[in-house]
Structures are given as structure tokens and as C-alpha cells.
Amino acid sequence: MNLSALAARCARVTPRKPHVALPLLIMGMLYWLSSLPGTPLPGDPALYALFYWISPTVQNALHIPAYAALAGAWCWALGAWLRVALMRAASAFAIASAFGVFDEWHQSFVPGRYASLIDVIFNVAGAVLGIWLAAWVESKTRTIKPQINTDTHG
User: Fold this and answer.
1) What pTM did the predictor assign?
2) Where are the alpha helices (DSSP H) in the chain?
């Protein structure tokens, strides 16, 4: 199965109101990650060490796919309420971007961390990418027809 067919198959899952749990879960994970102290503290769980070996440059670059996933998840989940694609996209972009700003502000209170305008720009760029990817996936559902099995062998 190629990427377009996989995207079309995933996009055919009709969002329902409980599906809002997915973007909320992503937001919770991003909030938790931004709550990690900038430097290891005595008594930190061993799990935190996994995040300290990632260089700051890579951490900054990871904002883009993280916020793309968040905006894409919101775009999909909002389909349970908003039928107009432009409204879904605008709402998902607004939620993801606002959360990106809020999360940077929150990070400014975490020991060893700071808020960064570059990170906010990466968050917004990721939200744009996520909306674009969601639109691409949605377009694939309109252009790729489901395959009908015409095999008559038992």
C-alpha cells in the first residue's frame, strides 16, 4: 500500500466527539515535556535522562513535527463539529498556535528553561504544516476510490 492509499484509509475514519481526546493527549504530552527542568536535578526520574541527551538544536527542530501533529489532530477531531474545511483548519491552527504560545510562556517558569520567540515561530510553522498535511490527506480521500474486491475465488 502506498502513502496516498494509507492516508486515504486513515482519513476515512469519521471523527466523533470523543476523538477530541487525541489532540488533548498530544497537548498533555507537550506540556509535560516543557515541564522538564533544563538541567537534571537530583532525584529526577531516570526517564528524564532520555530527554537530556537530545541537543537543543534538535529539540527546537522537533517543535515543527510536534505542532504539526497537534494541528493535524485538531483539524481531524474538529470534523465532529465543523463540516466546513476552512473553519476546521482555521480553528485547528488557532488552537495549536495559541497552545504553542501558552506552552512557551509556561516554560519560562520551569527551572533551567526559558521562553523563546524562535520556538513560538517553530510552533506556528508546525501548525501550518499540520493543517497542510490534513488538507492533503483529506484531498486523498476524494481522489482515491476504495478498492472493491472482485475476486470470485472463495
Assistant:
1) 0.80
2) 3-11, 21-34, 46-52, 56-61, 63-77, 85-107, 117-143
